[in-house]
Design a protein that fits this description.
By secondary structure, the protein is mostly helical. The protein is 49% helix and 8% strand. It has a two-stranded antiparallel sheet.
């Protein structure tokens, strides 16, 4: 899929752990990990909103369009 989540980079810049972010936004650690590793095929707007709120960023800071099919995923999670 040509859309990539840069969640790992933003989390690193904000110095927040996966566990802490999962607790703050009310999502399971497993589902947040799927997002962080770019294995999700979809992201709910409510999840994106919560991520932006807690990471104090804009959706464009998290989402990146890649030309072509780089980063194609096989997971079928909708988190």
């Amino acid at each position: 899929m040509p859309i990539r989540l840069n969640l790992d980079r933003v989390m690193f810049e904000r110095r927040i752990s996966l566990t802490e972010l999962a607790e703050r936004i009310g999502i399971t650690l497993a589902n947040l990990s799927i997002l962080k590793t770019n294995k999700a095929r979809a992201v709910r707007f409510s999840t994106l909103e919560a991520l932006c709120r807690e990471l104090k960023c804009q959706p464009g800071d998290l989402l990146e369009y890649l030309d072509g099919t780089a980063g194609q995923s096989t997971a079928k999670e909708d988190v």
